[in-house]
Amino acid sequence: SPRMMENKVFLSFAFYGTILILKMYVVAIITGQVRLRKKAFANPEDALRNGGLQYYREDPDVERCRRRVWAHRNDMENIFPFLFLGAVYSLLEPSPAVARLHFFIFCAGRIVHTVAYLLRLKAPTRSVAYSVAQLPCFSMALQILLAAAPYW
């Protein structure tokens, strides 16, 4: 709606939310490309379509990609709640600068989490990125609960 497009907080949320969704697509594409490049397929039908059953095998890089499914699942477990929290938080009319900071911290944390996984960065980089990204979500959730509590 036109009124929603006037909401600077919502537009900021839409920007960062879209960046995160695109990041999820990129991770999925990378996983598929590594499977094709390494010719190591988890399903016999995929191996047959790509050269033969000898490619129905395991490969260390592909196994890491398979664990990327965990990273993708981790994204879904974190980004989808952020999308809900951010949308509702946008309706509370918070300060645009504070809201933007919430969205940026979450987005940056999730990107660093993914980069740490893909590039095998030393611990605790990934867990710190995960934890930092949770802070704005808890903040938004608390503010939503406080705003909604009188209507409970």
From TrEMBL:
SUPFAM superfamilies: MAPEG domain-like (SSF161084). It catalyses: (5S)-hydroperoxy-(6E,8Z,11Z,14Z)-eicosatetraenoate + 2 glutathione = (5S)-hydroxy-(6E,8Z,11Z,14Z)-eicosatetraenoate + glutathione disulfide + H2O; prostaglandin G2 = (15S)-15-hydroperoxy-prostaglandin E2; 2-glyceryl-prostaglandin H2 = 2-glyceryl-prostaglandin E2; prostaglandin H2 = prostaglandin E2. It is a multi-pass membrane protein. Its main location: cytoplasm. It comes from Alectura lathami. Its EC number is 2.5.1.18, 5.3.99.3. Belongs to the MAPEG family. It is found in: Cytoplasm, Perinuclear region; Membrane. This is Prostaglandin E synthase. The keyword Membrane applies. Its cofactor is glutathione. InterPro entries: MAPEG-like_dom_sf (IPR023352), Membr-assoc_MAPEG (IPR001129), MGST1-like (IPR040162). The keyword 4Fe-4S does not apply. Pfam families: MAPEG (PF01124).
